[in-house]
Amino acid sequence: MSRKEWLEVGKQSLIFLLAMAAMNLLQVGLAGLLEGTPLPMEKIIILMGLWLLVFAMFLGLSPFAMDSKQRGLEYLLTLPISRRRLLSIKLLPRLAAVVLFYLAFVLLYSLSGQSPFAGGSAFFSLAYFALFFISFSLSLYHENFVVQFFMAAIAWCGYLALCLFVVQLGFSWKFAMPPSWVGVGVWHDLSYDISTLLSAIGVFLLLLAPFVASIFLVFKKFDLKPARAFNRRQLRLFVPLLLAALALSLGATYFVQKSTAQDISHSIVSKGRSTENVGSHHLRQGTGTMGYAFPDLRKLKFKILN
Question: Where are the beta strands (DSSP E) in the chain?
């Protein structure tokens, strides 16, 4: 059975790779014809990132799609293996494909001259793997793939919103500012603020854990009853796990960020003569201008000396 899963995932990955290559070539060709210039590498990377997200969601939702259509769930449940081993057999080939495509994307991104682990790239990486695991946790939610797709998209967006809220709250704790001052730009050049980056990774992993844990724990008693019965059992387990993960992520973020706290209201820069970094707020020497990565610096009170 394991060999069958690897072959099926390999076939799906090959079809996706060919489709992605064909679509990218078509878009590059159309851009050349319509605009007279080749499509910039940045746009190609963005298009590939969108394709990767679709691929991650599809693989996450697909473990039992064919079995449901071919009435194969009855056969799966009669195999002399545990439910958790069955779920692992479904998970591992798909996870390997997701990782392989991600590594190829990182390589291409690096060749374009960009850092694959800085700023928005770090956010994309976390969101990409989160989408796969969230989709996998909902692979038994409904027999209709379209319904599964929309539920996975809603759950993923809610997950990202919660993660961003905790990360931005931690950033506000670190720099002693109101949370409303911190925007989504917190992810820009995040690699320069190691404590915030590690805190963000921890938040994403902690809040992702309830999705993975709930499907493995509930699948232990999986049967052929209607999907809504399985969903109720999973939801009853998922909610307390999510609340515990949220409390733990808030506590860990507070501890990490407060231990490296800085008060940006006391940053003083001599105009035209010095350069100072606060997190990744970079004041450019000789220009008197401020480039920013995290909050909206128009609201921050920097004192510029003549």
Answer: 268-270, 277-278, 281-283, 290-291, 303-305
Q: Same domain, yes or no, for 256 and 273?
A: no
Overall number of domains in the chain: 2
User: Do 127 and 210 fall into the same domain?
Assistant: yes
Q: Which range, 170-174, 231-235, 270-274, is most confident?
A: 231-235
CA distances to 49, 73, 234 from 63, rounded to whole Å, are 23, 11, 17
* pLDDT tops 80 at residue 30: no
Residue 209 has pLDDT above 50, yes or no: yes
Q: Where are the beta strands (DSSP E) in 196-302?
A: 268-270, 277-278, 281-283, 290-291
Cα dihedral sign, 256-242-51-98? positive
Residues 297 and 177 reside in one and the same domain: no
Q: Does 187 lie in the same domain as 295?
A: no
Digit-coded pLDDT (tens) for 72-119: 677 777 777 888 888 888 899 999 999 999 998 888 888 777 666 666
Could you tell me if 120 and 211 lie in one domain?
yes
Same domain, 221 and 282: no
Does position 282 have pLDDT exceeding 80, yes or no? no
The token pair at 161 is 């919103």
CA 100, CA 142: separation in Å to the nearest integer?
28
Q: Determine the distance from the C-alpha atom of residue 306 to the mean position of all C-alpha atoms in its chain, rounded to a whole number.
A: 44
Task: Based on the fold, state whether residues 256 and 285 are members of the same structural domain.
Answer: no
Residues spanned by the domain of 301: 265-305
